[in-house]
Amino acid sequence: MASETIRTRIWLEEPEPDNSFATRAAYCHGYDVYGEMLGNASWSDMLYLLFRGEAPAPEQAAVLDALAVAFANPGPRDLAVHASMCAGAGGSTAAASLIAALAVGAGQHSGAREVLLGMQLWIECGTELDAWRRRLSEAPSDVAGIWPEAEHPPGFDPYANRASMPVRQVLSCLARLGAGPCLSWLEAHRPALEAVAGKPLSLSGVAAAAFVDLGLTPEQGEMLHLLLRLPGAAVHALEQRQVGHKDFPFFALDLENDPLKEAA
Amino acid sequence: MRGPKPLVENAGRLRTRMGQAFVGSRAVFRGHDLHADLRHMDWLELFVFGITGRRFDAKQLRLLHAMWVYTSYPDARLWNNRVAALAGSARSTPALGMSAAMGMSEAVVYGGHPCVRAIDFLRQAQQQVRQGCSVEDVVARELAQRRIFGYGRPINAVDERLPWLLALARDLGLDQGEHLRLAREVERVLVAGDPRLKMNYAALTAALAADLGLSVGEFHHFQVPMLLAGMVPCFIEGGQRAPGTVFPLSCKHLAYEGRDKRRWRARVPSNSPSSS
Question: B171 to chain A nearest CA, in Å?
């Protein structure tokens, strides 16, 4: 045993007999990854196993599959994808494109932090509308942290007139797959919950309910949300790299304190 | 429900007071011509002007500079520096290594979170003391609700940076502020209960910054590159060594504590006849 070790409940690696830096077999939560899972396990099986430590039940794998499709590409209008496209258009590295998407997609406005906060709400309030009412009427904390103060109830869209068609389609699909109580309750009580929040449900809110139904912790949900949205960020960055910066919007600024104008 | 009005109103144009590049002629930085008016600023001076919109005098800037210099440790074992070193070792790029190492420095155990919590606590505590509360009461009330950041240190309770920064603050005449005085009082109260809870760099820099007039948000921004200068040497040396030789991990370095080996059962598709 090496003197300093990394403790892990997730991953076991057995070395080649003549080289402890070369892997002969790797086990994820006890399962032989290359010997048995490969070819027999799906991407969602592996994701669920990594996060939860157990193979998923069929309905859990189906929900994760559907989530992976629903979140794979938020589309170029999304803030995180916009960020990755800026990297692509300017010829930045691939990793910088994804870092841009992760940094922007980490936030409290339609990002992973919003999903974490939404999951905390679900864990506190569950399927009790009165609990949601009480919780959402509480004054925000006066304690500063690295994250800014929340500006809208997490999981709800501050700029929508109503829950969008994709939000309703994703919720309906996931609720039908039946991985837990939150999604089905949300589908049944969406208008009432939206009235309590004062805003329509967003995709982040559906993600929060789905992740709670899958048994994830808020921290796990935050991570998974970041991961699942990366494919779209990647391909849109690659596309804008090809399109080129000359055809990428530069937009207009209205400088309100131009010293040249103020001197005139 | 507010609806999309704020989005509609802001589509395509950004109203700003922060600046603009008039490419080919000039650049404006917070209402000043960058080249005509601000070109003599050093980089940190411009940085804090960008954060605050306020000017700081030479002594104040020297203290702010020192806050960065005195904690620039090119020790590749430190978690953020290790990421820089690993990026070099993996033959990644400097910008990727530095952005990852800086991004992760907004951590709970060190860096961003303790700095933000420390200045927020000191500023709020100072208000309470001004209103007549004792430091003992302020500390007790805070501890009843949450940990006080800026006191105690994970590896060694003694913070070797403090005497140097305090000495410079004294030399510059910037060690008489009310937040620094309060930070020392808080240390006295905490150490009486636990000798390990000596003031650390987060509380000292937060107190000095608060005495320079920095808000919580302004100090949050200011501290972001505080550890950067120590990261670059770690990246460089990682890149000079043979690839992959910065703290390489063998299978023996993994102490597995999980489930015993078990057989993977291929999932039967739910629409298959055998699943019914």
Answer: 32
